[in-house]
Design brief:
Length: about 130
């Protein structure tokens, strides 16, 4: 359990530092990524492409991160606050003008061999849209 909590904390520390190589290095090669209100993507290459798109459109830092794990360390969850700035319009979403937002969010993880094998992110898209309109 402690190893899993450390893994997820390292995952978010790398995200906050903008260290994409460390961030992606914490994933299995066949990682499953369930995008909030979107598609499921599989594989580290797909995750890398997703992060490239996101990092171009948003500048985000995660705060107040709380991580929980099952006793066997196979599953974890995190709750956090997304502090962001909308830099470039994402297709199908409002225009971007550098709007700032604060968004409660969470994620569920599956862990295999000390790496993230699945991540499912959740946040309230309607809340985000209302903040950036």
């Amino acid at each position: 359990m402690n190893e899993t909590i450390a893994l997820i904390r390292n995952y978010y520390a790398a995200f906050n530092a903008g260290d994409m190589e460390t961030f992606l290095g914490l994933l299995t090669d066949d990682v499953v990524h369930d995008i909030n209100q979107g598609e499921r993507e599989t594989g580290k290459a797909a995750f890398r492409a997703f992060m490239g798109r996101m990092n171009g459109a948003y500048r985000e830092t995660l705060a107040d991160i709380v991580v929980m794990a099952t006793p066997d360390g196979a599953r974890a969850a995190a709750e956090f606050l997304v502090l962001g700035e909308y830099l470039r319009a994402d297709p199908g979403l409002p225009e971007a003008h550098g709007q700032k937002y604060r968004l409660p969010a969470g994620a569920f993880f599956e862990v295999r061999a000390g790496k993230v094998a699945r991540v499912t992110n959740y946040y309230n898209l309607q809340d985000w849209i209302a903040q950036v309109r």
